[in-house]
Amino acid sequence: SVAEKAGYKHFMQKEIHEQPRTIGDTITGFLSSKDEDLYRMIKDTDKLYIIACGTSYHAALVGKFWIEKFARIPVEVDYASEYRYRDRIIDKKTVVMGISQSGETADTRFALLDAKNEGAKTLSLVNVVGSSLSRETDFVLYTYCGPEIGVAATKTFTAQLVALLLFALEAGLGRKTITKDDYEKIHNELLHIPSKVEEILKKDDEIKDLAHRYMNASDFLFLGRNINYPIALEGALKLKEISYIHAEGYPAGEMKHGPIALIDEKLPVVCVIPNDRYYEKMFSNIQEVKARKGKVISVATEGDKQIENVSDEVIYIPETLDPLYPILTVIPLQQLSYHIATLLGKDVDQPRNLAKTVTVE
Ligand code: G6P
C-alpha cells in the first residue's frame, strides 16, 4: 500500500532513501551487542571463509579486504552454491561465515551446516532476527535495517558493509593488528557516513536525468579497482536484476584481457574512481575506455576536476577515508539502476523470474 511506502513510489526507492538511518542503526546496534566469546575465538582463527549469494556475496568480497587489512586473517570468499560442493580445507581454527539478508537462503544454510559438520566454527551475519541461519550457527551478527521488501537488496547491502567493517576493526583490536588510534580514526569517520549518504541522495534528480540519457543502451560495463571492484559487480547486478539490461562488472586492470574488445561509442562504462590510493591506476584505465570512444560515467570524489576531462558524466560523492569509500560509491549505482528501470517501465519491486528469498537449492 501507499502508506507502507511512506510517500515513495516503490519499496526499493524507500529503502534506498532509508540508508542514512539503517547505516546509523547498524553502527549503534553493532556496538551495543559486542559478543566477547566471538572475539576470543577470532583471536586464534587462522582462516576465514565467507560464503553468500547475490548481493550478500558482494558484501563478502568487500569484507575480505577489510578483514585481511585490519585483522590479518586470510579470507576466501565463495558463492555458497560453489562452496558446498568443493573440497574445502577445514580445521578447528577455521571459521566459516555466512552472510544473508533473509537468513533463509538454502545454498548458504546448507553450505554452513556442512562446514559445521566438518568441524568449522560458524558465524552468520543476517538481517532477520530468529532466521534459520542465525539459529544454526555458533555466533551471530546482525544488520539493523528492519524488513526489506524490494527484491533487489539495497539498504541491507550497506548495512552488511558497516557490520563487516566493524567486525574487522574489532577483530583487529583483539588480534593487535591495528592500533587503537587507527581503530578510533575509522570509527569516528564512520559516524559521518550517514550524513554523507544523505548528501548523495540529494542528487536523485541529477541521477534521474543521467538515467534518461543512457536508458536505451543494451549493455553496460562497470569498472572498479581494489575495494571498489566489488561495488562495480554490485552496480552491474542491480542494473540487470531490475532493468533487464545486460551488465558486467570487471576489475579495471583486467579490462585489457577481454572486455576492452566490447568498447565502442554505444557502450556506457560506469567507472568507480574515488580519490583513494588507486586513483592514478583507475584514471589510466578510464583513458583507455575514452580512447575507444566508450561513454564514461564516473563516480568520483567531490573536488576532482580532472576527471571531467575523461568523462561524459560525473557523479560526485563526498570525501571519506580510503577504506570507507564502498559504502558511498554504491549509493549512486543503486539510484542509477532504480531510475533506468523505472524509466523503462519495469516493476522494480518484483522483477521477473526473481524471488526475494530462495529457499530451494
Ligand atoms: C535473492 C535476492 C537477492 C539476494 C540473494 C541472497 O537472489 O533476489 O536480492 O541478494 O537472494 O539473499 P540473502 O537473503 O541470502 O542475502
Automatic annotation (TrEMBL):
Enzyme active site: K356 (for fru-6p isomerization activity)
Keywords associated with the record: Aminotransferase, Cytoplasm, Glutamine amidotransferase, Repeat, Transferase
Gene Ontology CC: one annotated term: cytosol
GO BP annotation list: carbohydrate metabolic process; fructose 6-phosphate metabolic process; protein N-linked glycosylation; UDP-N-acetylglucosamine metabolic process
Domain SIS: 38-177, 210-351
Subunit (UniProt): Homodimer.
Protein name in the entry: Glutamine--fructose-6-phosphate aminotransferase [isomerizing]
Portion of the full sequence shown: 243 to 603 of 603
